[in-house]
Amino acid sequence: MWNKIESYINTHREELDIEVPGAHVWEGIENQLDVPAPKSLWKSSFQYWKTAAVILLGVGLAAFWLKQDVHPGTQSDIIETQIFPHGIDAKLAQWPQQEVEYESNIQELLKEVRTYNPDKYIFMGPYMEDVARLDRALEELQDAVKEHSLDERLMNSLSSTYQKKIDLLNELLKELKESNP
């Protein structure tokens, strides 16, 4: 019985396939379509070449600019000389005094922070965890100074870390004062 049904479906498939329109319908649809003319391969590839050339030129100029040597007498050297007439050595020589000032500011801020009860101000916990992270970073930087001696890069990193710690403590004090009318 199934064989008869299958053979009937196979012989009359085109009549039973009602979801696919006939060939005459497709011809009518194709005639109504406005088929745009294909783009010239020359124009589209030329556009890609122009874009690639502009990018390559930009990369080349950036590389040239980054590779240039800083010549004495440039604007940054003049400014550096005006601020520190004896050069980077003067900045390094002033570092111990600067570090004492940072530490003094931090101790004053911590003294004020400790006047607040951390149990009452729950938001103090995350701030103090961040302060502890900055303390660990300072210790690592100070160990690097002991190991390699102080240079401009280490001095800038130390200064930046001290400043972040001061900013964090100031932000904490601001929140504490705002929440304690």
Secondary structure blueprint with pairings:
Layout (H helix, E strand, L loop, with lengths): L1 H10 L1 H4 L6 H10 L8 H27 L7 H9 L4 H26 L10 H25 L3 H28 L2
Helix pairs in contact: 6-8, 7-8
Principal-axis shape: elongated
Q: Number of helix segments?
A: 8
Are there runs of 5+ residues with pLDDT below 50, and where?
Answer: 75-85
Strand content: under 5%
What can you tell me about this protein's structure?
The chain has 181 residues and is mainly alpha-helical. The protein is 77% helix and 0% strand. It has eight helices and no strands. The relative contact order is 0.06.
Q: What's this, in brief?
A:
By secondary structure, the chain is mainly alpha-helical.
Question: Features of this protein?
Answer:
single chain; 181 residues; mainly alpha
